[in-house]
Amino acid sequence: MTNPSTKIPSSEQPRPTRVGVLGAGQLGRMMALAGLPLGLEFSLYDTSGAPSAGVGKIYSDPKNTQEELDRFLDSVDVVTYEFEHLPLDLANNIASKKPLYPGVEALRVCQNREHEKGLFRQLSIPTPEYRIVASAEELEKAAEELGTPVVAKSVTEGYDGKGQAVLRSPNEAQAAWEAIGHPRLIAESFVHFSREVSLIAARNTQGEFIAYPLVENIHHEGILRYTIAPAPKVSQQTQDTATEYLHKLMDHLEYVGVLSLELFETPEGLLANEMAPRVHNSGHWSMDGAHTGQFENHLRAILGLPLGDTDPHRVSGMINLIGRTVDAAQILKLRDTHLHLYGKSERKGRKVGHINVNAESYAELKDKIERCLPFVPEHAPFAWSPEQNS
Ligand code: AMP
Asked: Which residues approach ligand 1 with their CB closer than 6 A?
């Protein structure tokens, strides 16, 4: 018999538990893996024709028909996404039917480097000097004004260093313009940064905010290879400054979910490079290295739940597996090492998994990472800031 006093009052909405993810790759998979213990159900919508998530109910529709999208939307309470290159009309269409987090405005800004850098400027977040150009002649003029080297990037559709060129002299403008082949570019001063760092934070539907520690990212051939968390030798002031930037951005956008901000650290301070309106590869360490991982905090945020503690347990390193996977037994015999494989086939340049390593100190972390590397085929050199700058 039901006790009448335990009945939910009719004015109270049942808590949403059915999460829809646009995209069915590794980020959707890790989101679902984090959400299952919270009693959540997942539907993943795939238009690639090759969903790899391997968890949740998959709606795969390479033709991207309204019927299949509607079936997917009918099966969920709230929608989020694992990639930011979602057409805005599709995002608006979805948002008119179900809550979509992060919202359309965040997507709009993050999809366009001109809008993104403009917002950084508006909120007094320092960036590299830049100009927006719409012809080879304008690019040449921008290179003269800014001084070379200059990094030219298409304002839209670029990621992982694609759609970019470095000009060593203004007279390389025509060749760079033709190589990029885009009608609108951002030309930025080349930053001689000491290292690349990123910050991840979550903001929930009630406006509660929490940030992770700044992390150090090591790229090779335009792809993230290693993350060290927290980044070594970060002053409290630098951490606070980065957190304030992200907090301002999230409040301004009325952002809900996890937002990732990539920055250059220079002797003069931090410069914002770009942001991603989603869980981020540079936050994967948090799955095993923080009290609450980024995937769980993203879900808590979009479901209006209290956000979880972001403190790191100890120090962590993340090794990306690019193109080739590993022998699980070799990695798992190493102490404090966690393996995450994404169920994807091997292909050059493809993110197929990552390894998280935890340690008591940075010296121990370096040693543990180096013990993993012989078993990571085709790994990039591990060169982090304590060695670069010492
Ligand atoms: P992005 O697509 O903007 O993240 O750029 C990809 C990579 O290119 C960054 O991770 C940096 O290593 C490098 N990069 C981008 N912009 C600049 C810049 N203005 N100065 C120096 N390096 C840059």
From this structure: 128, 151, 153, 158, 161, 188, 190-191, 196, 219, 222, 262, 273-274
Contact 340, 356 (CB under 8 A): yes
Atom of ligand 1 minimally distant from the CA of 217: 10
List, by residue range, all CATH 3.40.50.20 domains of the chain: 4-100
Which residue owns the Cα nearest ligand 1 atom 2?
161
Residue found under tokens 């003029």: 141
The answer regarding whether domain 4-100 maps to CATH 3.40.50.20 reads: yes
Superfamily per CATH, domain 129-189? ATP-grasp fold, A domain (3.30.1490.20)
Reduced to 3 states, what is the DSSP secondary structure of residue 320?
strand
- Pocket-testing residue among 127, 271, 273, 280, ligand 1, by greatest number of atoms within 8 A of Cβ: 273
- CA nearest 195: which of 103, 267, 274? 267
- Enumerate the CATH 3.30.1490.20 domain ranges in the chain, comma separated: 129-189
Amino acid at 163: G
Predicted confidence (pLDDT) per residue in 39-71, tens digit: 999 999 999 889 999 999 999 998 889 999 999
- Three-state DSSP state, 217: strand
CATH 3.30.470.20 segments of the chain: 195-375
17 backbone dihedrals φ, ψ, rounded to 5°: -130, -10
Q: What is the CATH number of domain 195-375?
A: 3.30.470.20
Q: Is the pLDDT of residue 4 over 50?
A: no
pTM reported for the whole predicted model: 0.94
Longest alpha-carbon distance in the chain:
82
In which band, very low, low, confident or very high, does the pLDDT at 5 lie, cut at 50, 70 and 90?
very low
In this model, does residue 210 exceed pLDDT 90?
yes
Q: How far, in Å, from the CA of 265 to the mean position of ligand 1?
A: 12
Condensed to tens digits (0 to 9), the pLDDT of residues 342-384 reads 999 999 999 999 999 999 999 999 999 999 999 999 999 998 8
